[in-house]
Every structure is written in C-alpha cells, then in structure tokens.
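User:
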Amino acid sequence: MSAQAGTGRALRARVIAAALGMNASGINRAKAGNVSVRWRTRNFDGFLITPTGVPYDVLVPADIVAVGLDGRASGRLAPSSEWPFHRDIYRARADAGAIVHAHAPFCTTLACLRRGIPAFHYMVAVAGGRDIRCAPYATFGTQALADAAVRALDGRRACLLANHGMIAFASDPERALRLAVEVESLAETYWRALQVGEPAILDDDEMDRVIAAFAVYGQPRDRSPGRP
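Assistant: Predicted structure:
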C-alpha cells in the first residue's frame, strides 16, 4: 500500500515543493489547485494537504493541514476546499500515495468542452488506461465532485474535471507532479491536433499492448503500483 511514512515535517515540505512545482511547470497559476500526500502514524490515518487560499510561495511546513479519512482536519489553517475528493481517492485507491490537482490550461480547455483525452497517442496509457476520462461537472468542494472524480479515476491515475481542471495521483508527490505535467502535455497535443481535424485513434488492442509494455518499462524500482 502506498502509505507515506516518515516525519510529518518532511512530508509537508514535499507537499509544498510539489505545489511550487505545479506553478513553475506552467500547469497551474497563483493559488489555484492543491496537493496532498497520504500520511499514517500510530494515531492518525489520513493525508496532509495544502491550505485553502494561501499562496504557495509563502507556505511553511506548519501550514500544511492534516485531514483524517474521517474528514476531521487539524492545523492552524483550514484545508483546501477540495479535501473531499482527496479523502475519497485515498479511500478508494490503495495505490494513491499523493494527489495533484491543477487548473492546467490545456486540460481545462478540454474539460470546458466536456472532452476527455482519447487514445490519439500511445502515451495516453501513462495514466493507466486506454483513455483519460472527463468527470461530469459538479460544484467545487462538494461530495458530488468527489464522487464524480472517483468514478472517472476507476482504473486510471488521472482524469479531467468538467469546467474545472485535472487530477493526477501516483505513489509520491514528485511522481504525481510528473504525471500531471505529462497529462497536460497530452492535452496540449490533442488540442493542437483538433485544430486541424479529428486525430486517428488507436484501437483497444493496441492500447492494451502499450499498457502491458508500460508495466515492465523503465528501471525495476520504478514499477511499483501507482508509479507511472
């Protein structure tokens, strides 16, 4: 299971680094989006998440909020308003060790068109399946949005959120951020292809071959569940 161990301070610092990385990579701007990491101790089972409404460049580890799987938060600041879908993804997916949510420009463009990302390129399989789904619209911070996100992520490690943004998860914050950047790159390429016409779509058999190949691609240490 992709639980994060270690000191809370070290994990909080990694959450901040991933949040800063979202903006530095161009997949997010200002205070939009949020980042979390699964955290378990002897007396706590839940996650650490960025606070609501605070610029990432002024965050310190003590600002990162602990939220239990029961929904109870502890810390000097309130958690991100999107904490419900973080909680429900961790509940539903043992392979989720960290989550990145960004308002990535090209992902959000497609999401505003209520379009997912089909198998126009084999790298779509990096998100774990034959396509990257777009979850139906629901108001931010609601249980309805959490439910929609969990459904869209069934068998996947990334999804779009209609009229909102995107979610990616992996075993740790660094890999979750890398996956989010990869999904945004795919969204950009797909959007550019759509300016010319509808791109050719790879069939299910080919995508299944790619998914199987990805399972043994790279160095052995990078093949544990949840690692793209």
